[in-house]
Design brief:
By secondary structure, the chain is of the alpha+beta class. The chain is built from three helices and five strands.
Length: 119
């Protein structure tokens, strides 16, 4: 399974983190597939930089963010965009389906009218 999680970097008292795409079986600071951004909690206010396009790409293919990365994505606005992309498709299909049901209802009525006129 592919995960989106933090990779710790920096010195003992000055940590910063990279947001990375990694196989879930790898170590916390092990080899990663791709870097999506960074997070520095020591600055005031904290520094957060996320590549939104890359993050959405990995979310689309099924990568699961860790709890911390999920909260950082909320702050960066990535999850809101992901939500809009994901549920906009469902809303479109729900809008299309009632229209098809109405057509299905009108078609039998039209057949009944044709049968009446044929008699």
């Amino acid at each position: 399974m592919v995960k989106l999680r933090l990779k710790r970097m920096g010195t003992i008292d000055k940590p910063f983190y990279r947001i990375v795409v990694v196989d879930s079986r790898k170590k916390r600071d092990g080899k990663y597939i791709e870097s999506l951004g960074y997070y520095d909690p020591k600055t005031d206010p904290f520094t957060l930089k996320v590549d939104v396009e890359k993050s959405l790409k990995w979310l689309k293919v099924g990568a699961q963010p860790s709890d911390t990365v999920r909260s950082l994505f909320k702050k960066a606005g990535v999850l809101e965009k992901w939500h809009n992309i994901r549920y906009a498709k469902k809303a479109e299909t729900e809008i299309e389906n009632p229209a098809n049901e109405n057509e299905a209802i009108t078609k039998p009525e039209q057949k009944d009218e044709k049968e009446k006129t044929d008699k």
